[in-house]
Amino acid sequence: MSVKPARENWWGETWAVFLKDVRSEMRTPSAVATILLFGLVTLVTVSFLVRVEGQGLTELGLIENYVEVLQADPNARILGTVPEGTPTRHAVLAGLLWIILFFSAMAGLPRTFLKEEEMRTAPALRLTALPSAVFAGKLLFNVGLMLTVVSVIFPLYLFMLHPWIKNWPLFVGYLVAGSLGMAGSTTIVGAMVARAGGRTYLMLPLAFPILLPILVFAINGTAAASRGIPGNYLIPLVSYVVAMVTLSALLFDYVWSDR
Fold first, then answer.
1. Quick one: residue 176, left, alpha or beta (phi over 0 = left, psi -120 to 50 = alpha)?
2. Would the CA dihedral through 116, 121, 127, 130 be positive or negative?
3. E strand or H helix at 61, and its extent?
């Protein structure tokens, strides 16, 4: 009987873990439903409660010759308008977008490991797949899950909050890189939460320090891309994501294995 090379086995195990999670999610879409419902409710609430137009956001104050304008027409508009929005508006909208995505991810991404513990499939998975393959398969699933959520939430965000985006390629680059970073950095945190008995309240305090640099780079970067100004945030964002995913992969064996 021939033995497949270790590299081929690793890729096969990784793909098997990914497909298992996809099929499980299609049968009982707990993670997708949790993230989408949380994101949609938060987005609708924000769109109704947070003011993104008006003084300091799309208006800059009185125009210089407002006295003459009022004398000519008492009903004339005397506030200077900024259709694309002020820097404050760009920063507020960028922060709202990433806050929605962050808390949506915290609500659903831990489900990938919690389902293994709840369904009692974790011991079998430890016996049949390498820890690195389990991490890679879960990482691929979380990335796909996060990108799916972004593809649903972001168009609604555009429709409800009307952001003005001048540099679309750079904006999309930050959106993709930040989403990959959240999915990658929270994979090992989800495993830690599952190993701690499924205490989901631990997810936020454990993940927030790890994701804070990602949020800072992503918020500042998307705000800069919206304004169309240069901002050197994409390189440090990608570098941090690569470093965190690499470190998580190295530490995953100690979190996942029974020792």
1. alpha
2. negative
3. strand 59-62
Asked whether 193 and 206 are in contact (CB, 8 A), the reply is yes
Give me the pLDDT at residue 173, please: 92
- For residue 63, is pLDDT > 60? no
Calculated CA dihedral for residues 86, 90, 96, 97, nearest 10 degrees: 150
Residues whose CB is less than 8 angstroms from the CB of residue 198 and which lie 6 or more positions away in sequence, other chains included = 114, 117, 118
Strand-pairing partners, residue 79, are: 62
Q: Give me the residues paired with residue 151 across strands.
A: none
Tell me the C-alpha distance between 36 and 148, whole Å: 9
What element of type H or E holds 60?
A: strand 59-62
Helix H or strand E encompassing 88: helix 87-108
Amino acid present at 27: R
Q: Which run of H or of E encompasses 79? A: strand 79-81
pTM of full prediction above 0.85: no
pLDDT tens-digit map of 218-242:
999 999 999 888 778 999 999 999 9
- DSSP, collapsed to helix, strand or coil, labels residue 55 as strand
